[in-house]
Amino acid sequence: MSFYMSTLQTCPYLPEQEELLVLSDPRAVLESVEYDQLLQKGFRRNGPVAYRPMCPQCDACISVRIPVDHFQPDRGQKRTWARNQDLSLRVARPYRDAQHARLFADYQRLRHPDGGMDQESDRLYAEMMADTSAVDSRLLIFEKADEPFAVALVDQVDCGLSAVYTFYRTDLAKRGLGIFAILSQIEWARKQGFSHLYLGYWVAESPKMDYKRRFSPLEGFIAGEWRPLSTHI
């Protein structure tokens, strides 16, 4: 597989930094076996492209994962889990849905205003559901009376379950739907026999990423190997 370097651009997590990414060849089909290997090396997936930060003056982005058999929820997470037991889980292969598209657009408008994604939500949603990679993906749909409250797109590979993107109703803050979606992915990964849930990148200095450190134990890909993150948090 061939790889390319992106151009330098403003970091979405630390605006005073510049971001440089290593990208897989967008013309090649990203196979499950290839992505399994890349995920274990700290890469993530965006549509048909695998990527990993390789910024010249910053190493703040740490790929993190949860060993699901060892995860123990804290009191707040237990309350969030209990609060959302009225929602049912439906699992499906990725598909386009008008209700999901509206939920995605509302989420982008309210959670990421002026970030660019809110202006292109229709296109981004369509591309996400029409992914051209060969990675085995699923939608975890949390709903009540056929109304979607949260949708999580996940990848299934040999090394574990990878959380690609989650969007949810932002008008129900007390439910903690983002946290609930992760807790549900941990439980679903455990039931499916996956050893880890990959959560993407964690940046210690970014308030947007702070919720990830609450999931314990948490492992990070540091200096070429996976190790406990307890000494870095």
Summarize the helices and strands and which ones pair or pack.
Blueprint: E1 3-5, E2 9-10, E3 18-19, E4 21-24, H1 32-39, E5 44-46, E6 49-53, E7 62-67, H2 75-83, E8 88-92, H3 98-111, H4 121-129, E9 136-144, E10 147-157, E11 160-168, H5 177-192, E12 196-202, E13 219-222, E14 225-228
Parallel strand pairs: 11-12
Antiparallel strand pairs: 1-4, 2-3, 4-6, 5-6, 7-12, 7-13, 8-9, 9-10, 10-11, 13-14
Helix pairs in contact: 3-4
Summarize this structure as a short list of keywords or feature phrases.
eight-stranded mixed β-sheet; 24% helix
Notes on the structure:
- By secondary structure, the chain is of the alpha+beta class.
- The protein has 5 helices and 14 strands.
- The strands form 3 sheets. The protein has an 8-stranded mixed beta sheet. A 4-stranded antiparallel beta sheet has the order 1-4-6-5, with helices on one face. It has a two-stranded antiparallel sheet with strand order 2-3.
- The N and C termini lie far apart (34 Å).
- The model has no long low-confidence stretch (mean pLDDT 92).
- It is found in: Cytoplasm.
